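The instructor's notes for this session suggest beginning with a concrete chain rather than abstract definitions. Hand out the sequence below and ask the class to guess, before any prediction is shown, which regions might be ordered.
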Amino acid sequence: MSIIVDFQHHYTPKELAEKKGESGALGASLDERGNPAYLFNPLLSDLDAHIRMMNFAGIDMAVLSCADGYDNPDRSECAFINDKMKQAEEDYPGRFIGLAHLPALDAPEMEAELARCVDELGFPGVVIGSELQDRALDDPALDPFWGAVQERGLYVFVHPLAKVINWNRMDADDLGRVLGWEFSLSVAALRIMNGGVLDRFPDLKIQFAHFAGGLGRYMSRVRGFGTRTQWGTEGNERHGRKPHNEYDWYINNRLFYDNAGWVSPVDTARQGVEWTEFGLKEVSVTQVVFATDYPQAIRTDEDCKEYTDAIRFMGVLGEKILHGNAEKLIPDLAERRRR
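After discussion, reveal the predicted structure:
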């Protein structure tokens, strides 16, 4: 059975949206510096709209995650989100797949909620931000999290946080969302490699949003500076780190990516294909899964269908992205579809 899975659907339970005052019209929230940080969108809470779009676009299933749980240290709030994910699965059988939201840096609470998410709720993966409580993803404090996820055979979806990169030069042109989010993904992916996370946890599966922010296009610089000796950082505790294997091995064998990250609504089909084709020049198609980033980066039924069809029309590569890799992250996909 060929099943098309959208690996990046954003969902905010209505209760959370109403509590935060986000249940009104479309609009951007501003951070403390006045920069756009997050898009309030009524479609985030409207699962009927999600299903309508999926039916129109020919998407069988969608993986749900909630931004309020990407970096949430409160287990009770994570548990509420997880329960709503499970409710979505039950209300729309065979259409949605929930991810676990965890207080990742609190090992006892993380392990307890993870066990509940797997044993009771049956989630196949976990979602976290590209940094957690101002800690990089290679921080040793996260080793219990990585170990617990690996032991359970789950995958981890990494998405940038709503807060923007706090550089002074990000204070205009919406640069925090345009470039800052993508840069945070690239930084996270590179630190996971250099910090030895993938070496310490050899069976860990990590899916980065948006082709890991386009890290692949910088690999010539990464490889060059990675020699360390020629750049004066050999032996430096912080700047001389190296992974055990060549970078390309991790990029093309250990990490997974989704092909979302472009932004509608200008020439949807062309943009989606150009973004995807460029990404495939950087990473192996064997590691790429399909995603729309609905309903944030792409939000109309027509745009989602146009984009999905455009990937189909890419031929063998498009079919690999749409069908070929999903079960690498969710092995029991066919069974979930039959529920």
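Then share the key points. Residues 5-338 form a domain with the TIM Barrel fold (CATH 3.20.20.140). The chain has a mean pLDDT of 92.
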